[in-house]
């Protein structure tokens, strides 16, 4: 690979070359150009660029860069284009895993494993960076955990079916190591690590309103418990804390649902508060802010951002009104900005 100081010098010479080409092309267009020994044609541009950067640049990128300058000298291309960093396709690359000698470009890997069947759709995708896991939940009840090991993906799936209930969202419980998903009337807790993954899990039911979204509340402590937030179709936001003891103490006598053990929802303390006058479309906890956010298509109470303690008291919450409501939101820690989409 090129040394950084050599690359910087080569880049400065390359930028000088481009500037001369632009001046030359501008004069040609104005009819002011007179030929001299410093004229830069394609052959000179190619040989100079190849001398500066060696095999780090490809012929097709040199050609594309030259054509771009000649066709429109007023719109100056960025220098990373000479390395093909802005091209849509990896032209001429024998393998997508090859690394550029100058720049490392992030690459996408397609998962060809089919996790849903026809007439089914993915309703939730959650990434767990610390464990390198990706979790998906389909509307008709397929929960899948993708585990990236040895540069390939291994997946563990199970199919949850209960009458006509659809899965509406999923999350990951980092302390209990369970996958949580919500349906219209139940909360699913799946122990994906179990050898008998089709039967090792729990269902919390019944839930009176239709649950639409779920997220995990990330805390600093590492106790054997996890807290989740949920939103429903009546504008309520729920707070539920689950411990490992709950799996033993609160099993229902009603048997099993889809081979999962049933936990009675009445035995849990689940604070809830009506924050919106319409469906809760999305809910998320921001550990950096120690606040949760929830949004709705409600034009009056469109977006709420506050402490989870507000779900257990009746103090005013910080809320924002947006015409026709909010469908999505996210937080950027670097810019300290929350962005909403309506």
UniProtKB/TrEMBL annotation:
Highest taxon listed in the record's lineage: Eukaryota
Keywords: Repeat
UniProt keyword annotation of Glycosyltransferase present: no
Keyword Amino-acid biosynthesis among UniProt keywords: no
InterPro entries the record matches: WD-EF-hand_domain, WD40/YVTN_repeat-like_dom_sf, WD40_repeat_dom_sf
Protein name (database record): WDR64 protein
Organism: Sinosuthora webbiana
Gene that this polypeptide is encoded by: Wdr64_0
